[in-house]
Amino acid sequence: MRGWKVAAPGQITWEESLPEPSVTAGLIGVEVVAAAVNFADNLVVGGTYQTIPPYPFTPGLEVLGRVTASGDSDLPEGRLVVGLTAGGGGSWAEHALCDPRQIETVPDGVDPEEALAVHTNAQTAWFALHRRARVASGEHVLVLAAAGGVGSMAVQLAKAHGCVVHAVASSNKSTEALRLGADTVWDRGDPDWPEQLRDELAAQGVGIDVLIDPVGSTAGEQAARLLRFEGRHVIVGFTGGGPPTLRANHVLVKNLEVTGVHWWRYPIERPDLVARAAREIFTLLSAGSLDASVSRREPLERAWAAAQDVAAGHTTGKVIITIHGSD
Fold it and tell me: How far from each other are the two terminal CA atoms of the chain, in whole angstroms?
């Protein structure tokens, strides 16, 4: 099969003839219809992600595919599924491996590629908003990297829940954040954006109740200072280069909550919540109330170049790698 191989940290090559991954106990095999590109894929290739498969392996964390070998699961062959890859058989190839606990069946009435585009990012945003922050209608939500993968979903899901959404994005992505429903958009390149937002909130007599933070670093620190009494800071990732440094006295005095979301654990630990989130997300998607925000489609040979573009912040929404047809 054709695909990408990582032989050692940072050593990724395109291969025309890779062996198909062997289905081992607890896993299933899928023919890849499409793959997604994530910031985390760059960390996997570079060897710095939380978990790295044994070398060599095929990268690609997210997959849309048809079941070809169901293993011990009750999934029928040919079933179209979306979710995470496993066992080093990533989605940047024509065949991949999955843990059946970490995939969902694509329901009728939902475009398969759109299901792929929203699944992991929207799940992450859903858990950040509803599970960790317990967001309520009418609350003010601040979303960093609001035109990115998780950010674009957080903006939309917060709006769907009746929240007031304040978005922080690069100046060239502000239009996208507004299109997705943000009530206000702030230029992350303007060093005065936190004070400007603070002044606007003060004039209205409100504050930030929930911060969705996929960025961390300085941006996360600045945004955290805008949280009001009993605000909730949900850390989703560190695309800014590292975790934010939060002052414990601010957490104490404001009675803040600081929490995190690593969604990969939920399909294993709480599949019931994942199924609930999937139902809500796919219902919104099929009703046209959730924009999949697919910004680019690339062939398999361009997967690594696309991942580098994502890491450099040159993309919005989701980048999809098309491989086989879904019909």
Answer: 20
